[in-house]
Every structure is written in C-alpha cells, then in structure tokens.
Amino acid sequence: MAVGRVWVAACACRRVLRRAFSLHKPHSITDMENTLQLVRNIIPPLTTKKHKGQDGRIGIVGGCQEYTGAPYFAAISALKVGADLSHVFCTREAAPVIKSYSPELIVHPVLDSPSAVRDVETWLPRLHALVVGPGLGRDNVLLENVKGILEASKARDVPIIIDADGLWLIAQHPALIHGYRKAVLTPNHGEFTRLSDAVLRDLVDGSDHREAVRRLSQALGNVTVVRKGERDVMSDGEHVLECAHEGSSRRCGGQGDLLSGALGVLVHWALHAGPKKTNGSSPLLLAALGACSLTRQCGHQAFQKHGRSTTTTDMIAEVGPAFRRLFET
Ligand SMILES: NC(=O)C1=CN([C@@H]2O[C@H](COP(=O)(O)OP(=O)(O)OC[C@H]3O[C@@H](n4cnc5c(N)ncnc54)[C@H](OP(=O)(O)O)[C@@H]3O)[C@@H](O)[C@H]2O)[C@@H](O)CC1
Ligand SMILES: Nc1ncnc2c1ncn2[C@@H]1O[C@H](COP(=O)(O)OP(=O)(O)OP(=O)(O)O)[C@@H](O)[C@H]1O
Ligand SMILES: [Mg+2]
C-alpha cells in the first residue's frame, strides 16, 4: 500500500515535470526526463559519515540600511535547501537586524568597512559559493568593495551567483564577470533589459526570450544567464533550457532572493558532483533548472495554503516538502 502511494506520487510528479520543462531544440520527453534525473543526481546523499560544512558553506554579499530582508531570504533558503553554513557579509548597521531574524545565520558587519575586501577574502577559502547582490543597494562605496570581492573570488575560482544590485554593477562593468565560467546571473525582467542594453550592440527580438537569453550569455563570454519570469529561461550561450513549472500568481518581493540562495547551494553540489553524475551537461544549467523548479514549487505549495496572503516567508517554509516532492520521490 505504502509502496503504491509512493509510486503514484512519483508518477504524478513526473507528469507535472514533463509539461513543465522544455529544451531549446525539439528533444523528446525522454531527454527532459533525463535532464531532471541529472538534477536529482547532483544532490548529495544524507549520511552520518560527513562533517559539518561538507554539504555547503555559502556566502551572501548584501544587506544595507534599506534592505535587510533580501540577504536574509537568500541565506536562510541556502540552509533550508541543504547547505550546512550560511554567511552574510553586510554593512555594519544591517548586521544586528539580520542577526535578529535568525540565530542560524553567521553575519559579518564588514561591507562598508575600508578593509571589506580583505575581510571577505579571509573567508573565501572556506566558502563553496558566493551570492552577490540581494539587498546590496547602489551606494558607490559598497559597489567598489564588491568589485574587489568579485576579483578576489574569481582569483580563487569560487562559483559566483549575481542577482539584484550585483547585476546593476555588472551592467556598469560587464568586464567584471566576462568569460568567468563559474558565474550565474539571475536577472528579473528589468535587470535583464538593463544588462542587454549595456552589453548587446544590436537589438534582439524582445519576443524571443530564448534567443535573447542565449545572446546575452554569449556576449558575456558564456556566463550562465537565468532570466526569471512567467517562464524562466536559462542559457550558457550554447544550450537553452526553459522552466514553466507551475508556481503561484503572487508576485510578492523576495522570491528571487529565495532562488538565488537555493542556486548557491545547487551550483556547489553540481560542480562537486563531477561530469559522471552530470553526464557531460553543464553543471550550472542543471543547478539553475533545479533552483527555478524548486522556487516555483515552493510558490505553488505556499499559494495553495495561503492564497493572496502568501509571502516569501510562507514559501521558505515549503522548501523541505517542495524539495522532497521534486527531487526525492
Ligand atoms: N524584503 C527585502 O529586503 C527585499 C529587497 N529587495 C532588494 O531591493 C533592491 C532593488 O531590487 P528590485 O528588484 O526592486 O530592483 P529594481 O531594478 O529597482 O526593480 C524594480 C524595477 O524593475 C521593474 N520590474 C521588475 N520586475 C518586473 C517585471 N517582471 N516586469 C516589468 N517590470 C519589472 C519595475 O518596474 P515598475 O513596476 O516600477 O514600473 C522597477 O522599475 C535589491 O537590493 C533587492 O535585492 C528585493 O529583493 C525584494 C525584497
Ligand atoms: N509571471 C510569473 N509567473 C510565475 N512565476 C513567476 C513570474 N514572474 C516570476 N516568477 C517566478 O518568481 C521567482 C522570482 O522571480 P522574480 O522575477 O519575482 O524575481 P525578482 O524580481 O528578482 O524577485 P525579488 O523580489 O526577490 O527581487 C522565479 O522563480 C520566477 O520563476
Ligand atoms: Mg531580485
């Protein structure tokens, strides 16, 4: 009986997934199933043989006077997805606020200090991925420090996810990330337009999202780009994946922050899994597909319970069940 129930749940989930994902070229359903199986492959098993930190130490660079929620959402989402430790590097005055949201986060009040780059650099050898931008703001002193943090992270080969105001910085200085193959950019509609205007010489047909994302990725030297929206479209300049997994009709703030934190962990897992597990597919694209589908599944489940009052906090409460439904059934 129990086995039967599990099998039905798995089948129902597969049916949803078949409808929800498509590859750029007309690949078969089996190809899509295989792509999702590859996402499942990168998830590390839970065993008693590991030490704290092994499944992910993620850093979030962001958090200033105006925005304390965004870095919190990203950092707590990384933990809920399965990272062991989540660090937030924010300004001095944002730190006590972020700490007060959760005792589970490690919060460094360094981002507006003259020694910001050095302070973050000392942590870099211990971090598996860095998420740059949620709640960063656009203060020039902070952005200068973030430039230094990006250079230091690249020099150490640390995977970098860039979101929100981090993308504002990239639109001003695309060379900061150009050609770095361990970078993922996660623009929303406005951020994508700003980046395209800054980077592409000639206009792209705005209605062809897949081609627009592929071209932006290519122009940035094949960094992976995830364009969030009604459908999420992601590309490494060569391959294009699309995620239209059922989400919610609520557009409350913070959902992109959840996605960026989740992506930080999945990028680490995908790179750590190695080419045998990913079967030659781009690890960053697989991680992106996983993070998009998970965020949307969280939205779907939260919306079923809370309807119009759904907020990002409700979605974060769904990370565990959503993860199980998508990847562990
Ligand atoms: N609780 C917190 O602390 C949170 C803090 N956050 C932090 O806030 C900071 C700024 O982030 P942001 O996303 O508001 O940036 P920004 O570029 O000003 O975008 C707004 C512009 O884009 C447009 N626009 C957006 N989407 C669109 C769409 N689908 N379709 C069409 N237009 C669209 C929109 O257009 P409008 O509706 O105004 O005409 C507007 O012009 C950043 O640090 C972030 O992390 C957030 O993470 C939320 C939770
Ligand atoms: N119109 C839509 N329909 C369904 N899902 C959407 C829609 N727009 C965005 N999403 C989903 O919401 C999540 C966040 O995307 P969104 O565009 O809201 O990011 P954002 O603007 O950066 O969010 P944030 O408020 O955190 O900054 C993504 O998983 C995306 O798939
Ligand atoms: Mg955002």
Automatic annotation (TrEMBL):
InterPro entries attached to this UniProt entry: CARKD (IPR000631), Ribokinase-like (IPR029056)
Binding site for (6S)-NADPHX: 135, 188-194, 257
Protein residues bound to ATP: 228-232, 247-256
Enzyme Commission code(s) on record: 4.2.1.93
Chief localisation class: mitochondrion
Superkingdom, taxonomy of origin: Eukaryota
Name listed for the protein in its UniProt record: ATP-dependent (S)-NAD(P)H-hydrate dehydratase
Organism name: Acinonyx jubatus
